[in-house]
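User: Here's a structure from my thesis project, written as structure tokens. My advisor, Dr. K., wants to see whether a designed sequence matches the one we expressed. Can you design one independently, without my sequence as a hint?
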């Protein structure tokens, strides 16, 4: 039996993910932009981005027989009080600004277990010989583009995904699967003329 999307979503939320969407296995429409970017050497010394280029255009090379992608979001928003060690000028001299995503345990480690648990539960829920492969950040997958297509959010002008419920501070993970699951509605771009993310960008180059 193939588990329903609602069953999978329920398990994902129970494991601590904040959102879960579904999309097909075709490469994203933005793939040609990625290839141009690589060909123009925009990846600098991130050589793995060139190495991943071919697989990003054909996910069957990543998981043979792939039918669907389960896209997951998990927020890294933390209460402002947690910033005090870097921002509280009264008690200690400022020592630099630490990116919000880096104020926790490394997310690659922290999210490994819930992703493995989700894969295990998927395996237990279907009796056929289906395969599931989890990725988080480091895989040859266009994570933001797939997540937008799975309805999790839209690409802001700062290039990252913005969710109407989670805002911008969330990580993206996915499970590639040979299960055939009905795709969700893609999210549409909602930026309009807003440029707040560009103005707030700490690199000041926009
Ligand atoms: C390489 C990488 C980086 C690099 C390069 C950043 C970048 N802009 O790509 C560095 C180290 C700088 C980086 C920094 C950060 N990253 Co990073 N990074 C990645 C990684 C591994 C690959 C991204 C990638 O493929 N870039 C390639 C280029 C081509 O992407 P791009 O410039 O955005 O172009 C795309 C679109 O904008 C669009 N596009 C481009 N041009 C055009 C033109 C037209 C006309 C159209 C229609 C479309 C279009 O198509 C392109 C192809 O997708 C992903 C994980 C993954 N596997 O996907 C995480 C990822 C994108 N990073 C993430 C995060 C959290 C960050 C930081 C916020 C961390 C921090 N320091 O606080 C910063 C944000 C910096 C920023 N504003 O981009 C998250 C984003 C989550 C989200 N909500 O979207 C991801 C998804 C990791 C994760 N699993 O959660 N990152």
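Assistant: Designed independently from the structure alone:
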């Amino acid at each position: 039996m193939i588990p329903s999307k609602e069953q999978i979503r329920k398990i994902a939320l129970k494991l601590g993910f904040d959102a879960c969407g579904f999309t097909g296995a075709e490469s994203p429409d933005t793939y040609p932009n990625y290839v141009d970017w690589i060909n123009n050497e925009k990846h600098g010394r991130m050589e793995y981005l060139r190495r991943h280029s071919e697989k990003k255009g054909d996910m069957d090379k990543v998981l043979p027989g792939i039918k669907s992608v389960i896209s997951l979001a998990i927020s890294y928003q933390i209460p402002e009080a947690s910033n005090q060690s870097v921002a509280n000028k009264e008690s200690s001299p400022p020592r630099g600004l630490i990116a919000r995503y880096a104020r926790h345990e490394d997310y690659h480690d922290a999210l490994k277990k819930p992703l493995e648990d989700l894969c295990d539960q998927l395996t237990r829920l279907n009796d056929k010989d289906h395969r599931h492969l989890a990725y988080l950040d480091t895989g040859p997958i266009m994570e933001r583009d797939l997540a937008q297509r799975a309805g999790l959010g839209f690409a802001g002008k700062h290039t990252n995904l913005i969710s109407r419920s989670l805002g911008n501070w969330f990580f993206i993970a996915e499970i590639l699967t040979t299960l055939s699951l009905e795709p969700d509605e893609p999210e549409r771009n909602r930026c309009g003329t807003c440029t707040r993310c560009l103005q707030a960008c700490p690199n000041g180059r926009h």
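When you compare it with your expressed construct, this may help: Residues 81-89 have pLDDT under 50 and may be disordered.
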